[in-house]
Amino acid sequence: SKKSRLSTIKLFNYCYSIMSTTMNSRTVVDKTTESYYISYRRNLLAVGVMWAIFVVCLAIINVVVVAQPQWIGDTSSSPGVGFFGLIRYCQLYQTGTNLVCDGRLDDFSTILNDAFRAATVMSGLAALLALTTIVLMILFFFVRTPEWVFRICGTVLAVTCLFSLLGCVIYPSGWDHAKVRSVCGSNADKFNPGSCGIRWAFILAILSIFDSLVLAILAFVLGSRFAKLRPLATGTPGAGPMNGDKHSRPQSEVNSAYADDLYHNPATTPRVATLGPANFGDDFTDISFNTAAKSTRSKNFQL
């Protein structure tokens, strides 16, 4: 009957409105998720680049600290003239002559005492590990999960921090050597530089402790952040924005209503044109039914 047909059309109109609203909401969710992912990943990459630059600076600092004999040295009140490092030391034996330096890395017997040798080993290992971290960063170009590279680098930097700390703690225990006392005075003793002063290489060594500690913590933080980002990027194995598909993104991360539809891929999902809700008035409906009735009668067909 005409009344039942009107009811059917109104029901269809209502269902179509709900479907249109759902499709519009889903489109908004897709755009929000993509915008969030792009911004979040860009920020992580920027922080990661800065982290890599500071790791390179840390390696340079550690190498300079080991090579330079400027850990402690004479002051205006010192009885002698000279300065000391981990390996090398320089001393003025006679006024009017040049400084005489000694100490070689290939001959540990030329290093003044056991404390200086142990500090050299600790600081040398710290420099070697810092350089190893730079080599490990090459793995970023070959892996799909950078969080593991960050965690490995963070572990290496934590060990670097430990070795740097041990080197700085052990080194002052060798200040009781006779050559140190000849420059710094007879009151120079273990952990007491006497009349000598702390120089820039020792200060850099102390700064490298905190530098490596902060970089190690930052590496672990970046690793955890990239681990949280990976589900957004790799909806299916080998796919995702980090692997070349910039359109793949999950709905469940934004709205639990799409928990069963975790990843929306436009390459496989057909595009649906979203229209506004249909609004069929009663006049339009009556005209449609009257026209249809005349057409059926003209064809001698009864519905």
TrEMBL record:
Keywords, in A-Z order: Membrane, Transmembrane, Transmembrane helix
Transmembrane segments: 44-67, 115-142, 149-172, 200-222
GO CC, any one term: plasma membrane
Subcellular location: Membrane
Topology term for the membrane: Multi-pass membrane protein
GO biological process: sensory perception of sound
Superkingdom classification of source: Eukaryota
Protein name: Uncharacterized protein
Classification of source organism: Eukaryota, Metazoa, Spiralia, Lophotrochozoa, Platyhelminthes
